[in-house]
Description:
Distance between the termini: 10 Å
Structural class: alpha+beta
Number of strands: 8
Order of helices and strands: HHEEEEHEEEE
CATH architecture of the largest domain: Roll
CATH class of the largest domain: Alpha Beta
Number of helices: 3
Shape: elongated
Amino acid sequence: MDKLFINLTDRDSIIPSEEVEGAMLRHFSNAVNIEWFYENGVYETIFYLDNKEYIAKFDRNARLIDYRVNLPLDLLPVTIEKSIDPEKEIMNLVEIHKNNAISYELILRNKELIRFVALFSQTGEKLSMKEL
């Protein structure tokens, strides 16, 4: 997750087509500090909404592919919290909205300071975990 935000900020921003910008503003009408990037046929935007950082992706036809919200740790759903190994510290929490489903990506760290990225379903099922 950390690399995603770093990679986006390392690129030069662009001005999207009117259709893509309009679609973004229809979905996120109160967004502020909007930056756009384009790579591999996908428009990506970083912005803030309700004091939270968002990343949204749109295709060339201005359709929303997915969006992610960088959440404070105190907004971690209880269903996810119960599924996390208590020996691991939660470092970062991202809520992912894709295909009418919500999932959660977490960066976790163990006592040896090894970091992991874990993906959980909305119900708390661990979908994947790998070492970073």
